Amino acid sequence: MKLLNKTLQYYFWLSIVLLMVAIPVFYYVLQRIVLSNIDASLVATKTQLIPRLRVMEIEPEALQPGLDDGVTLEKAPRRPESDSLYTTDKYRLLTSYLVINQETYRLQIKSSLADHQRLIGSIIILQSVLLILLLTGLLLINQSLAKRIWKPFYQTLRKLRAYKVDDPAPLQLAPSGISEFGELNSAVEQLAERSRQSYLSQKEFAENASHELRTPLAVFQGKLEMLMQTTPLSEEQAALISELADASHRMTRLNKGLLLLTRIQNGQFPDTAAVFVRETARHLLAQYEPQIAQKGLQVEEDWLDELPVNMSPNLLEVLLGNLLSNAIRHNLPGGKIVVKGANGVLTVSNTGQAYPLQEDRIYQRFAKNSKDAESLGLGLEIVRKICDLYGFEVKYSWEKGMHNFQVIMKS
């Protein structure tokens, strides 16, 4: 949940609690005020009636015609000490006792509550609506203000998500009028710049080291070949030279892989042309036939179209070569490889280990998911770098025992 929504959620629940508490409290207080006014009115009516009722002491026959609606006067057996006020279903009643001509009378004055209840209900509804509108307005204003206040934060977040440490330009964040966000942007820019400089230093070191190693490795391999042709060689010497040749071959491949990565990152493949993925894939599969036959692999192709793309032909060969060589190298003896192309998507699937690969590691440099000594841990990183260069997307999935690599070349 976003921080903005989290804050609004607190405000929302606080508003609900306020409404739940405020409405009953307001209703109770309003009802007490109304009852107090009714009681005062009943007492005032009684005070006005008493002088008129005292006339009965002089003219006993004039009592009943002078009473208003809601006022009753009747004889009572005895007189209580004080007046009483109470509420029935529909009325508020004041009961008082009078002694007229040595006889006790009970005076009852009632006031209807129906009109007052309707008035209270209307006031409560109006007050609730106003309260809801007020809280809704406060929530909307708070949301609007929060969005405006947090806008620099989300701008920084979008920049950071899009930023790559191998970008040629340093990270530049938008200035903010809020000092806290300004300090955050400054700290993030400094951190990103330190990371970029560290990355550039490492890249330059790898580039220089790979470049400088090319000549010694070539000399080393040449001398090894010459040494292998010398005679006599004992079996032990031949084995040692063979191991040295394997190590030299591996170092050469590693060196070529690092140089290739450096050239891709430096944009040293500017030339592009219209190339066809199916044609290149078939050409590479033909080259890999000895390795495929050695493992007894079954190859299936399913092409819906030629899958034309505009990119460097060399890099297309590298991309397909890495995917196919991985599918061969990490396959099971007698396994299966499926190459499909349709709707701008190339898919290379292969059988292999019976569990999915760690997708967050397979594109990392020198990350290996097998103990194969021939694997350098660079192939999939090269694939990803080529995809990044041309705006492709590479995805991995594991379904029904097949490891699937999809390269989405057209959106």
TrEMBL record:
<dbReference type="InterPro" id="IPR050428">
    <property type="entry name" value="TCS_sensor_his_kinase"/>
</dbReference>
<keyword id="KW-0812">Transmembrane</keyword>
<keyword id="KW-0472">Membrane</keyword>
<feature type="domain" description="Histidine kinase">
    <location>
        <begin position="208"/>
        <end position="411"/>
    </location>
</feature>
<protein>
    <recommendedName>
        <fullName>histidine kinase</fullName>
        <ecNumber>2.7.13.3</ecNumber>
    </recommendedName>
</protein>
<keyword id="KW-0418">Kinase</keyword>
<dbReference type="Pfam" id="PF02518">
    <property type="entry name" value="HATPase_c"/>
</dbReference>
<dbReference type="InterPro" id="IPR003594">
    <property type="entry name" value="HATPase_dom"/>
</dbReference>
<feature type="transmembrane region" description="Helical">
    <location>
        <begin position="119"/>
        <end position="141"/>
    </location>
</feature>
<dbReference type="InterPro" id="IPR003661">
    <property type="entry name" value="HisK_dim/P_dom"/>
</dbReference>
<dbReference type="Pfam" id="PF00512">
    <property type="entry name" value="HisKA"/>
</dbReference>
<dbReference type="GO" id="GO:0016301">
    <property type="term" value="F:kinase activity"/>
</dbReference>
<keyword id="KW-0808">Transferase</keyword>
<keyword id="KW-1133">Transmembrane helix</keyword>
<dbReference type="InterPro" id="IPR005467">
    <property type="entry name" value="His_kinase_dom"/>
</dbReference>
<feature type="transmembrane region" description="Helical">
    <location>
        <begin position="12"/>
        <end position="30"/>
    </location>
</feature>
<dbReference type="InterPro" id="IPR036097">
    <property type="entry name" value="HisK_dim/P_sf"/>
</dbReference>
<keyword id="KW-0597">Phosphoprotein</keyword>
<dbReference type="InterPro" id="IPR036890">
    <property type="entry name" value="HATPase_C_sf"/>
</dbReference>
